[in-house]
Structure formats: structure tokens, C-alpha cells
Amino acid sequence: MATRFRTLQGGRGQSNKNNETYFDYSLLFTVLFLIGFGLMMIYSSSSYRANLDYEDSAYFLKKQLQAALLGIAGMIVVSRIPYHFWEKLAVPAYFASMALIPLVLTPLGYSSHGARRWIRILGFSLQPAEVAKLGMVIFLACLVCKMGKRIRTMKGFYALLIPPGIIAVMVWKITQNMSSAIIILGIAVLMIFVASPDYKRFVIMAVLGSAGAALIVFAIVKIANSPELTEKLGFRGLRILAWLNPEAYADGKGFQTLQALYAIGSGGIFGKGLGESIQKLGFLPEAQNDMIFSIICEELGLFGAIAVILLFLLLIWRCMIIANNAPDLFGALLVVGVMGHLAIQVILNIAVCTSVIPNTGISLPFISYGGSSVVFLLIEIGIVLNVGRSIRLKDI
């Protein structure tokens, strides 16, 4: 439950009931629990590989712990900064996000697992796509507030889609990170949906998007019937074929999906026990990262998987409470953006692990291995907590 605290004025113990404010300890404790649980699962899922590659079974755990501590420090600092401060930095944040993305093509950038998506600055690794998500949320929240009633017009509606569209295209084309591009667009659509009174446009967009995706899949299936054309499909086309028939591509694009499904299926109701996963022993690629949910299912079973999903639902619900009671539209949209980021990423990660959608690289928030992801997610939570601090209990 949300907990109250009093803003002290004058001497210790004195309070002003009119300044009684809100702080969501449920949100904070849920995030901290997910961080702790994630560290435990990272160690469990990566210790075998880390021992082989680095002769240190806690290698990935140590790196993630450092990032988590840095993120928690950032969260604490940001939670004390009035959220309207970010309104002044909206434009610089947006253009800084755009400027960081091309740096992956410079000597500052480096490749990992065949993808050039990271840069190294002052000894720290940074994924520009994570910065872009936060920068886009701040900028779009500010833009919606400045446009006001103009977002109800078709011109204003499409004008709002241009900035996130530019960022998404840059992330997709420059870093070849289509999953992050989809997340950026998804966050933007959700924020505009909340701010716009006309829902018919979104229904039309959903129908057209679904029809377009179905046509793409149908076309790829048709191409697959011609062996000479199949070779011309890019890696994304092959991923779709592997999603439709993973057994036929068990030695290639379908391998990771099959191993993830084996892990989920072998876990049963209560799992094999913490640390007892078989798939993490060199069978499941990226066990500590994109596929960590499969290891959770294998070691903790259906019970553990449902518990994790419920924790994320609690986290999203608390964000909804804060957004509904935010003092102004800017604060509400900031929280909606963070909530959308969390919800979309959780849904897509679990959908990939369970083969509901084609395989793509998406981490599970706060749990998967990834320093940039956990740092910027915690900074986003700090913004949400600050919006919550601005709520006066007398107004709820």
C-alpha cells in the first residue's frame, strides 16, 4: 500500500497537514525486490558460462551489481529533483539522444554478439537506444503539453508521431536494433493515446498494423516455398520462418527458441530448483540476458513465472495510480511513458521466450543482464517517484 509521510517545517516533529504528501513505498520495494531477484537469477543462469569464459563464476553478477548500485544512486538523486526540471531539458535530451546513436559507427562504438549497438565512454559501456527511450519520453511529454488542443487535429496528431519516428528509424537503421525501435514507437503511441480524446485513429492504426504484419508473414511463407528465393531472405525473414517452424531450423535460427521452450516445458509446476537448470549449461544462448525468463521457468516452474508476472503487474498498477493522481499533464505523461516502457518490454520478452512472436533481442526489465538497461530504468523509476512526491493527499 502507498504510505504517507509528512513534510516537516520548522522544528522536528512539526508538520503542516496541507503539505502532506504521498510516497509509494510499494513501487520502490517492488523495484528493489526485482533487482535483487534479477541478481540472483543472473548468477544462477550465467555462472557456468562465466567460469568457462572468464574463470570467475560471478563475473556477470559483479558487473550487474555495479550497474544496479549506480542505477539506485541515480534513482535516489532523480527522485529528489522536481520533475518539471526535465521539461526545461526536453529539447536537449531529445537531440542528445539523436547525437549518441551514430556514435556506434565511430571508434567509440564496439560490437558484441555480431551487433554494433554500444559505445564506450570514459571506461563505461553505454547503449544509446536506452538513452533514446528516456529522452523520447521526456521530449514527447513536453511536446504534448505545448501543443495542447492542437493534438486533436490530424496535423497535430501526425506531428506528434514524427519525433519518435525519427528516433526509431535511427535506432533501427544505424544500430540494427529493431526491437528497441518497436519499443520506442510503442511508448510514443501509448503516450499519445492517453493524451488524445479521439480513439478511432488508434483503432485504424492497430488494424492497418496487424494487416501489414500478416501480409509480411504470408509473403515470407510464400517465398519459403522456393528454395532459391529463401536464400535471399534477410536474417529477420529467417527468424520469422524459424518462429513458424522452429524444428525445421533447429540448427540455425530456431535453435534458441527450441532450447527456451525445452527449459520452460521441463520446469513443470514448481521447477527443478534454484541453480538446477540444465539448459544454462551451454545449451541456451543468452541465458542470463534475453532468455532469462526461460531459466526462471525451468528452475522455479510455473509458480515462479506467475510470481514474476504478478510483480510486474503490481509495478505497472502503482505507476497507473501515480499517473491518475499526478498534479498536471506533464507529470502524468512522464509516468505513462515509463509505465509503457516497462509493460511493452515485459510483454515482448515473455512473448519471445514462449515463442508467441518471432525471436528478437529484448531484455526483461530489472532481471536480465544489461548495465545500460538497468541504470536508465532505475532513473525512470526515480522520475515516477518524484511525480508521486508532488501529489498532495488532500487532493486524492
Overview of this structure, please?
With 396 residues, the protein is mostly helical. The protein has helices spanning 25-54, 59-79, 85-88, 90-100, 128-147, 154-175, 178-195, 200-224, 227-230, 235-244, 255-267, 292-325, 329-353, 371-389; strands spanning 3-5, 21-23, 109-112, 115-121, 124-126. Strands 3-4-5 form a three-stranded antiparallel β-sheet. A hairpin with a 2-residue loop joins β4 and β5 (124-126). α11 (255-267) packs across α12. The longest helix has 34 residues, at 292-325. The protein is globular, with a radius of gyration of 22 Å. Residues 1-17 have low confidence and may be disordered.
Major beta sheet, strand line-up: 3-4-5
Give, in order, the helices and strands.
EEHHHHEEEHHHHHHHHHH
Q: Share of helix among residues?
A: 55-70%
Backbone shape: globular
Structural category is: mainly alpha
Give the tally of β-strands: 5
The DSSP helix count reads: 14
What is the gist of this entry?
Helix content is 65%, strand content 5%. It is mainly alpha-helical. β3 and β4 form a beta hairpin.
Characteristic key phrases:
globular, mainly alpha, 5 strands, 14 helices, 3-stranded antiparallel beta sheet
Question: How does the SSE layout of this entry go?
Answer:
Elements (H helix, E strand, L loop, with lengths): L2 E3 L15 E3 L1 H30 L4 H21 L5 H4 L1 H11 L8 E4 L2 E7 L2 E3 L1 H20 L6 H22 L2 H18 L4 H25 L2 H4 L4 H10 L10 H13 L24 H34 L3 H25 L17 H19 L7
Helix pairs in contact: 1-2, 1-12, 2-14, 4-5, 5-6, 5-7, 5-13, 6-7, 7-13, 11-12, 12-13, 12-14, 13-14
